[in-house]
Structure formats: structure tokens, C-alpha cells
Write a structure and sequence with these properties.
mainly beta, 8-stranded antiparallel barrel, 6-stranded antiparallel beta sheet, 40% strand, globular
């Protein structure tokens, strides 16, 4: 091999290596973290993302309800999960969703699907709040609301946050004022401690399209400051034990009921504290959780404190709203104590 050919081969090798690295390590997108709806009115990606419902089938005989979740990935890119029977918690038949990709072009999202042994082919569009997949399905954008949203505290409830001034019920409690109201910032613990109780919590996840995984709308509700119910933008994800509704790293939710970012969501939790005899735990703590009104954890046992939780002891503990660096906001938090 001549020196010239040897040099050319070396250059080609370096170029191919660089190309391979570019493919495996895509350029990181700048972090976006918005929790004020007034700043999103002109965001085209935000206008597309969300939930869609309609019907699928090629005739009246096989026409069935269908749903889709469109997840923004930043810079006009989307993941689309297409569910048969309806949306999770509202008719979905539980079978694996069809996975599509979307890209915003000239005001319209072009949907594609990876075909066996071929390149991805265009299968549909999203435009003006309507999602169409060929002649098979047509869905319109919708915004679900939790059946317990705005629930009023019953007589005798301990109100931890209802209005400005209630931040005094928390160690480190701070208010954030946004265009649509005054809400509670995380990174705080209630001054009052609780044993057995039911709690209602409302939270809103920020718009973070360029972030992924645990870096996207991360927070948590710690029961007795020991057991974390994860708060995370896991809209359209698998529903794992470290995602929204999960008992962190211990129990995955029965169904992923996470709504899109910037939609108010609810947790309604019934908690029974661990019991002790002579300093030894004889019964584990247990919890039943409804996320947006749907049962996702059914009387599950806590295996012990979750990550960052305080040790298990016989005494009551406070509620913690975790600060993980993302601008999640909370409102309408109240507790009913039980014997």
C-alpha cells in the first residue's frame, strides 16, 4: 500500500469514526423549563403535544374507540403512542400501543411508522388539533381532568395549602406567582407530622421538551418523609417504579395515568403507617393511591424507606414535597388523619 493510499484510508477511517460518534451521541438540546402558561401561547410544539381521542376502523362494523398520546421531544420532534380502545384509564384494552414518530413540517406534523425490512413510511398527520392515520383512524385533541381535581377538604381536615399565607404551614414554604395563580414551591416539609392519614395533593408538571427521564419534571411527595410517591413527567412512557405514580424503585403503577405537562394532576393517597413492637417493625407501611382519580397502587407494602427517605421509626412524620431542580408547582393539599 503506497503512502498516499495509506493516508487516504486513514482519513476515511477517521471520518467514518466521527460519523459513527455523531450518530450515537446526538447533539444535546438546550434545557427548557417553563411553568407559566402565558409563556407557551405561541409554542407550536406545545400546541401539538397532548392527548387525542376518536375512532378507528375502515367501516361502521369495525369502528372502535381509539386514543393517542403525543409526546414532545423538542425541535418539532414527537413520539406518538396509539392505543386501541381509548386512552390509559379510559378504555385502553391494555395491549401494547402502536409507536409512531412525528415531525413538524410547515405547520403540520408528519407521522411515520417503521415498517418491517423497510424505511419508515408516512402514515398520517396532525394538524389543527386533529390526528389522522390514513383511512384507519381520526382523533381530536382533548384535555382530561382528574375526577378529584379541586376536591374540597372535609370537615376536620388539616389544610396544608389552600391559599397564599398557607405556606406558613411548611418549613421553608415559599409561594411562586404565575400568570394563572399563586402556588407552592417544592423543597419543603410540613411543620405538622402524621401517622395514619389520607392526603389530597394537586401538582402541575413543567414544559421541558428537551429533557429526558429523571430530568423531566422531577419531584416527589414523601409520606412521613420516608416513602416517596414519584412525581415526574412520564407522560406517554412505560409507567415504571421510578416514574409518575410509582413508589420510588419499589412499586410500578398499575397504569400510567400521567397527564401531559402543564395540566393539573391529582394524587389521592390512603396511608397506613408501619407498626413497631419494642423498636422492631412488625407490620410494614401500606398505601393505596389514585392518580387522576384512577387506582394505580392497591394497598401495596413499603419495603422500607425509599431513596432519600428518613429511617422507619414508630413516631409520625411530615409530608415532604421534593425539590429536584425542576419547576413543579403544587396547590390544594389537605390531610385527613385516621386512627
Amino acid at each position: 500500500m503506497t503512502p498516499l493510499i495509506r493516508s487516504a484510508v486513514a482519513v476515511l477511517f477517521l471520518l467514518s469514526t466521527a460519523f459513527a460518534q455523531d450518530r450515537t451521541k446526538p447533539k444535546a438540546l438546550p434545557r427548557i423549563a417553563i411553568n407559566d402558561p402565558s409563556k407557551l401561547k405561541d409554542d407550536k410544539d406545545f400546541a401539538v403535544q397532548g392527548e387525542y381521542v376518536g375512532n378507528s376502523g375502515t367501516s361502521k362494523q369495525d369502528n372502535t374507540k381509539t386514543g393517542a398520546q403525543v409526546v414532545a421531544l423538542g425541535e418539532g420532534k414527537f413520539d406518538v403512542k396509539w392505543y386501541h380502545g381509548g386512552l390509559p384509564g379510559d378504555g385502553w384494552d391494555g395491549k401494547p400501543a402502536e409507536i409512531l414518530k412525528g415531525e413538524l413540517k410547515n405547520g403540520k406534523v408528519i407521522l411515520s411508522m417503521k415498517m418491517p425490512d423497510s424505511k419508515a413510511g408516512e402514515v398520517g398527520t396532525i394538524e389543527n388539533g386533529k390526528l389522522v392515520i390514513g383511512i384507519i383512524a381520526e382523533m381530536k385533541k382533548t384535555e382530561r381532568k382528574s375526577s378529584t381535581l379541586g376536591a374540597k377538604p372535609p370537615t376536620g381536615a388539616v389544610v396544608l395549602f389552600e391559599k397564599e399565607g398557607d405556606e406558613k404551614n411548611w418549613n421553608g414554604g415559599k409561594i411562586i406567582e404565575l400568570s394563572d395563580g399563586k402556588f407552592l414551591n417544592p423543597g419543603i416539609k410540613s411543620k405538622r407530622s402524621f401517622g395514619n392519614f389520607s392526603i389530597h395533593v394537586e401538582f402541575r408538571l413543567p414544559w421541558m421538551p428537551n429533557s429526558r427521564g429523571q430530568g423531566r419534571g422531577n419531584s416527589g411527595v414523601y409520606l412521613q418523609d420516608r416513602y416517596e410517591v414519584q412525581v415526574l413527567d412520564s407522560f406517554g412512557l412505560k409507567g415504571l417504579n421510578n416514574e409518575c405514580g410509582g413508589i420510588y424503585t419499589q412499586h410500578a403503577p398499575k397504569v400510567n395515568m400521567c397527564y401531559p405537562p402543564m395540566v393539573w394532576q391529582t394524587y389521592d393517597i390512603d396511608f397506613t403507617a408501619a407498626t413497631f413492637d419494642g423498636g422492631m417493625r412488625v407490620k410494614p407501611a401500606r398505601a393505596t393511591i389514585r392518580h387522576n382519580g384512577v387506582l394505580i397502587q392497591d394497598d401495596v407494602e413499603m419495603k422500607g424507606p425509599t431513596g432519600g427517605g428518613q429511617p422507619e421509626v414508630a413516631t409520625p412524620g411530615p409530608i415532604q414535597l421534593q425539590n429536584h431542580g425542576d419547576p413543579v408547582v403544587f396547590r390544594n393539599i389537605w390531610v385527613v388523619e385516621k386512627k
